[in-house]
Automatic annotation (TrEMBL):
<dbReference type="InterPro" id="IPR019772">
    <property type="entry name" value="Ferrochelatase_AS"/>
</dbReference>
<dbReference type="Pfam" id="PF00762">
    <property type="entry name" value="Ferrochelatase"/>
</dbReference>
<keyword id="KW-0963">Cytoplasm</keyword>
<keyword id="KW-0479">Metal-binding</keyword>
<keyword id="KW-0456">Lyase</keyword>
<dbReference type="InterPro" id="IPR001015">
    <property type="entry name" value="Ferrochelatase"/>
</dbReference>
<comment type="similarity">
    <text>Belongs to the ferrochelatase family.</text>
</comment>
<comment type="pathway">
    <text>Porphyrin-containing compound metabolism; protoheme biosynthesis; protoheme from protoporphyrin-IX: step 1/1.</text>
</comment>
<keyword id="KW-0408">Iron</keyword>
<protein>
    <recommendedName>
        <fullName>Ferrochelatase</fullName>
        <ecNumber>4.98.1.1</ecNumber>
    </recommendedName>
</protein>
<keyword id="KW-0627">Porphyrin biosynthesis</keyword>
<feature type="binding site">
    <location>
        <position position="277"/>
    </location>
    <ligand>
        <name>Fe(2+)</name>
    </ligand>
</feature>
<dbReference type="InterPro" id="IPR033659">
    <property type="entry name" value="Ferrochelatase_N"/>
</dbReference>
<dbReference type="InterPro" id="IPR033644">
    <property type="entry name" value="Ferrochelatase_C"/>
</dbReference>
<keyword id="KW-0350">Heme biosynthesis</keyword>
<dbReference type="GO" id="GO:0016829">
    <property type="term" value="F:lyase activity"/>
</dbReference>
<feature type="binding site">
    <location>
        <position position="196"/>
    </location>
    <ligand>
        <name>Fe(2+)</name>
    </ligand>
</feature>
């Protein structure tokens, strides 16, 4: 075996308040996050949304200490995974590549080249696959790979998703069991999974397997937990005016409260580290909604972070990937393109195809302005 590396992928988060706007700009510049009919509109719209959103987002980051803990925790996970793999007999370097903030994926790749890594396992820190997270990072890496002959010499494999891994399910079940044992009535408390949402169009039009994987993951965790508690799955963090996966977390909490549920044990399942959507959105915003609705216990299960059972699970995923047949970027799910190609032709007067194209473009600009107004007018959770 040649020099071995593991590349951990994550989303990244602003380290300090000044980073919030450029971080949001990077995020909204990604067509996997906002898909526009023309790539030319991507940068101006990203600039506009990041500028409009930055202030509210900064206030949220202020509430959790002035920045995202994601980099620190991901680097701790990388350290812990390296130690675990070394202990299991694998001499390995572990790298962190973030999609929208430091250390960027490109920085990790540069280090991998400097270290002359010959075999690489690419492991996203998202247990379930979504085109907006793992898919986006894979597409970026695919582009980098295609233009770099040096990288093409590396024998690599990707892990598209790993929510079925038994050690991961066990780590989640243990964390939930610990929390359940602390509430007033451990046998009746409701286990409430809160997954990150995505727009419905990702599932229905782009073929994202995310919803299926999330539903299967929640059911598997409950099987491992092996307790009689009822459970519910809902989706948080919706952004903008389009329809996202339902039920929405805030609505589901209110419905359970109206049904007389008094104790909720809330489990974040789309990510494996504490970040703004656990520390601010769940712990502050949803807690307030729950208490207001009459929920008496709102206990949040911690993200796995560097939990030893979880780190061993990650090590097992890496070891399995090394012995399985390599999976290239091209074998993972690509969003199905529903791009409309417009006819391009010389200028003519009248209702020609090109006049229709321009009418369409002007209507699109008007529509985008309307969307932005709607966006600004509606009190969305993340705004
Ligand atoms: C606009 C669309 C977004 C989609 C689709 C989306 C999917 C998605 N995101 C995560 C995990 C994380 N998201 C984080 C931050 C974040 N995400 C969006 C938007 C979308 N996410 C925004 C605007 C932000 C910034 C936060 C804010 O403005 O308040 C983070 C980083 C959090 C941190 O600590 O900084 C993570 C992690 C998943 C898993 C997912 C789809 C499955
Ligand atoms: Fe997100």
């Amino acid at each position: 075996m040649g020099r071995l590396g593991v590349l951990l992928l994550n989303l990244g988060g602003p380290d300090k308040l000044e980073d919030v706007r450029p971080f949001l700009y990077n995020l909204f510049s990604d067509p996997e996050i906002i898909r526009l009919p023309s790539p030319l509109l991507q940068a101006p719209l990203a600039w506009l949304i990041s500028t409009l959103r930055a202030k509210q987002s900064q206030q949220n980051y202020k509430k959790i200490g002035g920045g995202s803990p994601l980099r620190r925790i991901t680097e701790e996970q990388a350290q812990a995974l390296r130690s675990q793999l070394v202990q299991n007999g694998h001499d390995v370097q572990v790298y962190v590549g973030m999609r929208y903030w430091h250390p960027f994926t490109e920085e990790a790749i540069a280090q991998i080249k400097r270290d002359k890594i010959e075999e690489l396992v690419i492991l996203p820190l998202y247990p379930q696959f979504s085109i907006s997270t793992t898919g986006s990072s894979f597409r970026l890496l695919d582009r980098i790979w295609q233009t770099d002959p040096e990288l093409q010499k590396i024998k690599y494999t990707v892990v598209p998703s790993w929510y079925e891994n038994s050690g991961y399910l066990q780590a989640m079940a243990n964390l939930i069991a610990n929390k359940l044992d602390q509430v007033k009535d451990p046998s009746t408390a409701h286990v409430f999974f809160s997954a990150h949402g995505v727009p419905v169009s990702y599932i229905e039009e782009a073929g994202d397997p995310y919803q299926k994987e999330i539903e299967a993951c929640a059911a598997l965790i409950m099987q491992k937990l092996n307790r009689p508690n009822p459970y519910k799955l809902a989706y948080q963090s919706r952004v903008g005016p389009v329809e996202w996966l339902q039920p929405y977390t805030d609505v589901a909490i209110e419905e359970l409260a109206a049904e007389g549920v008094k104790e909720l044990v809330v489990v974040p399942i789309s990510f494996v580290s504490e970040h703004i959507e656990t520390l601010e959105e769940i712990d502050m915003e949803y807690r307030e909604i729950a208490e207001h609705a009459g929920i008496e216990t709102f206990a949040r299960v911690p993200a796995p972070d560097t939990d030893p059972t979880f780190i061993q699970a990650l090590a097992d995923v890496v070891i399995k990937a090394l012995s399985d047949r390599p999976i290239p970027f091209s074998a993972t799910i690509q969003p199905q393109k529903n791009t409309k190609l417009y006819p391009q032709e010389r200028w003519e007067w009248g209702m020609t195809p090109s006049a229709e194209v321009w009418n369409g473009r002007l209507a699109m600009i008007g529509f985008l302005i309307l969307l932005l107004e709607l966006w600004l007018g509606r009190g969305q959770i993340l705004q």
